[in-house]
Amino acid sequence: MSVLRAPRKILSNVIYSSLKEHRRFGGVVPEIASRAHLEASLPCLKAALKRSGITLGDIDLIAVTQGPGLMGSLLVGLSAAKSLSFALGKPLVGVDHVMAHAHSGSLADPTLKFPFVSLVVSGGHTLLLCMDSPSRVSVLGQTLDDAAGEAFDKVAKILGLGYPGGPEIDRLAKGQNTAHYFFSRPILSKDSLDFSFSGIKTAVFYRVLELKKKRALTLTVKKEIAAGFQEAVCDVLVQKALLAVKRCRLRSLVVGGGVSANTRLASKLRAAARTMGVEVIFPSPGLTQDNAAMIASLGAALFKEGKKDGLDLPGYARFHERGK
Ligand code: KG4
Ligand code: ZN
Hints:
Blueprint: E1 2-5, E2 9-13, H1 19-23, H2 30-52, E3 62-67, H3 71-88, E4 92-96, H4 97-103, H5 105-108, E5 116-121, E6 126-131, E7 137-142, H6 148-158, H7 165-173, H8 198-213, H9 219-247, E8 252-256, H10 263-276, E9 279-281, H11 292-304
Parallel strand pairs: 3-4, 5-8, 8-9
Antiparallel strand pairs: 1-2, 5-6, 6-7
Bound molecules: 5'-O-[(R)-(carboxyoxy)(hydroxy)phosphoryl]adenosine and zinc ion (ZN).
5'-O-[(R)-(carboxyoxy)(hydroxy)phosphoryl]adenosine is lined by residues 122-124, 149, 152-153, 164-167, 170, 257-259, 261-262, 289-290.
């Protein structure tokens, strides 16, 4: 939970993660996530208020994640936000969490102006968006199968690494030869802004199977496979994101979502964008993963545009269900 002085002064941003409880299952368990949300909501609210130095009575607007995500967890957040809105008599605004990732660069760069292109790379989504305003957004491209973060997590599992896999692969791949294990780049077609990452994951799977049979999957080999895989994913993300910026005739690219913390993606994207005179904005540290400050920020921007929701605000599991 977060307290934000609109438009972008973060007074507090409390992130509670139940990751530890999911780790031994190798992925997120919905039931555990819902219970953890329930247990964490009041302590998080108290901590966010305490750190911000304000009281509940000072709050002017309640913003809440409407989706996409796990319905059980979303309902806990929605119920808490609706109760606050009702009890305090303050307006409520539902926010799409993927749009909030796409918008999160505005918290890092106060000079950022619409329109801009956003690349959202998270565990559940990989999207290229043209952002004309907080509410006017068009989808330029999206993944046809696995999301980028999902591919990182699955490849980490194949390599026997921990969950979530993205940070592990990022760490292992540092300074490694990226060409020793080469994986083809799924570009689809020259003009396509869509993505497909399931093929690289399958290629890694068969490569690892072969190496296991030969008893040749050493730590050094694992590191080189991690580096080769990461390089392939980053090459595709960089190429398509810059193609989108060029096609929209824009000069700013905002990157958001968990995978935007990837150090290789940041260095490759910054270098390639520089040659095109494109400015790349990454979220501030701590704001790449799911967080409430980005929800509050987009909520405030939408409210300014006139959005206001009722206590019947529904949740939705998938991105394409938004606005229905
Ligand atoms: O945005 P996020 O916190 O949650 C979703 O909305 O999905 O993203 C989580 C994803 C996970 O798949 C995780 O492995 C990935 O972000 N991730 C990374 C890195 N840090 C987190 N992927 C690559 N490199 C990283 N450094
Ligand atoms: Zn997210």
